[in-house]
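Subject: sequence -> structure tokens, single chain

Hey, anyone have a minute? Need the predicted structure for the following. Not urgent.
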Amino acid sequence: MASYDLVVIGTGPGGYVCAVRAAQLGMKVAVVEKNATLGGTCLNVGCMPSKALLHASEMFEEAAHSFAKMGVSVSTPKLDLPAMMNFKQQGIDGNVKGVEFLMKKNKIDVLKGTGKILGAGKVEISGGGKSETVETKNIVIATGSDIARLKGIEIDEKRIVSSTGALSLEKVPEKMLIVGAGVIGLELGSVWRRLGAEVMVVEFLDRILPGMDGEVAKQFQRMLEKQGFVFKLGAKVTSVDTSGKTLSAKIEPAAGGAAEALEADVVLVCIGRVPYTEGLGLKEAGVALDNRGRVQIDAHFSTSVKGVYAIGDVVAGPMLAHKAEDEGVAVAEIIAGQAGHVNYDVIPGVVYTTPEVSSVGKTEEELKQAGVAYTVGKFPFTANGRSKVNQTTDGFVKILADAKTDRVLGVHIVGREAGEMIQEACVLMEFGGSAEDLARTCHAHPTRSEAVKEAALAVGKRAIHM
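Reply:
Had a minute. Here:
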């Protein structure tokens, strides 16, 4: 029987990063993966392929609508969807091979099959009609999440699709109905709208992007509506009739009332994700779950079974790849006797639409609810020189600072490359920095990041360019 210091179940961003860090710390490590390729949802059917299609579809739209304004004359672009899907696949393959290389480089054994915890110190790996059991001092559950399903609506990944099927449609739908106005729905809706689909989004709540800053969500919704998105908020999809040539979805007000039918070629269900714990043998092993099916852990990622830990989407917290990565590093260091730690107050979130939306820290709603006195500094990209000359002026930067100490508590950005710009806010907040610190830091000119500096100046009511 093979013996290890650590066995990690799952090779998504949390799992493979945990394995690499543990190997760096001198442990003998193995990873268990049930799928044909490494990298989990993120690399194969999530973050990475969606970003490839977002980029490609944005270039398609730019060529059709923006090039002429810049004096670049091209013929009307034609969509070659199979070639675009090949572009996406090349990106997936490159990233998957990268993870395989990291496993070899760090001498990590890859055990193919489905992992099942037999108790402290033992993992069974089964697949292809055979099984083996390995011994290990420590186990990390990093099995990620699965799509959440709507009762009574069966996903076939052809006409009624999850995010997985929406990344591999064989043709552009004339009409796409999206259930859920969260990050995934808006990103994938952006892809297919740019490529020619009419997109309608149905959301149970009375707003888009639940959990994000309210002002950001409102302004961003207006931008998406200008692009052609249609939103039905405070509504729910109760059924989808698949008997006809086109789908017929029954929509009802969330608060109750008369239903209506909407026609669509494709219905995309993206109402969130749920922890993936199937087949892990957690109940039999004595690993406790919470009331939402997540693995219960303490402050050091330990489960109710000694030597068994859990990280990423399978535990509480935002279902984000980078959160899982940080937890993977932290738990590897804790197992090695070091002080691994994750600062959950400084985990950025990004919506990779055009413009992008990014945020870190508290929203205004959260600060009001907690009774924290705060000041606000805002600066629009319409007043930013680089954005003006590039004619990409949609959006703004908003900084929330403690009214007494000036410490930055939250930063929210809507605009081009917002996902890149949020990082300086993250670094500042990790060091407990103030709006004054940010305002007095020299920023290169002309850059979009100057809007962050100006928003910090605006906290003290002294923005220069507004």
